[in-house]
Write a structure and sequence with these properties.
It is a single chain. The chain contains seven helices and no strands. It is mainly α and 189 residues long. Helix 4 packs parallel to helix 6. The relative contact order is 0.13.
């Protein structure tokens, strides 16, 4: 990266570090700098974080779609040296592959969104989301009778729940929930 892009990348990492401190209950360190600041440096950092978040999410969608295409091509080609030559296992895999392909974009976006949330220090969001979505996934899995039910029920529930909470965490990191910061600042005086 050169010039402006490099400065934005550095600003994004600096800003996400500062924002990450907010989630560690060290309110007075960050709250004087972050909420509704008119400081151009803070605003540039905030825009850089938003830009990086959108860029990574777009790439994750492309990655997921390419993964889906790869799995669908693998199913169509179905080489013995990759899938297996055992007819029963092969039959189950060929039935399952379209379901896995359909979920590739979901999994890709979820993992990248979680990585962004981790970079912003939003561990509490992720812990809560993973716990809640795991409970829902277990409930869905209790009714599963085959591999397709497992993938379409439990796995999808797990990743949708994680994506929702990771997305909320990234939105928080990008300032969507500034009212939280203002409330903390008002409480701390």
């Amino acid at each position: 990266l050169e010039g402006k892009e490099e400065r934005e990348e550095v600003a994004a990492s600096t800003a996400s570090t500062a924002v990450a401190m907010d989630d560690d209950d060290d309110d007075d360190v960050v709250l004087d700098v972050v909420p509704d600041s008119t400081d151009p440096v803070v605003e540039r950092k905030r825009r850089a974080i938003q830009s990086l978040s959108l860029y990574m999410l777009k790439l994750s969608i492309v990655q997921g779609l390419l993964g889906s295409l790869s799995v669908l091509l693998l199913r169509r080609w179905a080489p013995d040296f990759i899938l297996t030559s055992d007819p029963a296992v092969r039959r189950n895999l060929l039935v399952l592959l379209p379901h896995i392909a359909a979920q590739m974009a979901l999994v890709s976006v979820t993992l990248v969104t979680e990585a962004l949330a981790i970079g912003g220090g939003r561990f509490k969001w992720l812990a809560g989301g993973t716990t809640a979505s795991s409970v829902v996934a277990v409930i869905k899995l209790r009714g599963a009778v085959d591999l397709v039910d497992i993938w379409n029920g439990g796995i999808v529930a797990l990743f949708v729940g994680r994506l929702v909470t990771a997305s909320l965490a990234v939105m928080d990191m990008n300032g969507l929930f500034r009212w939280r910061e203002m409330k903390r600042k008002n409480i701390n005086g």
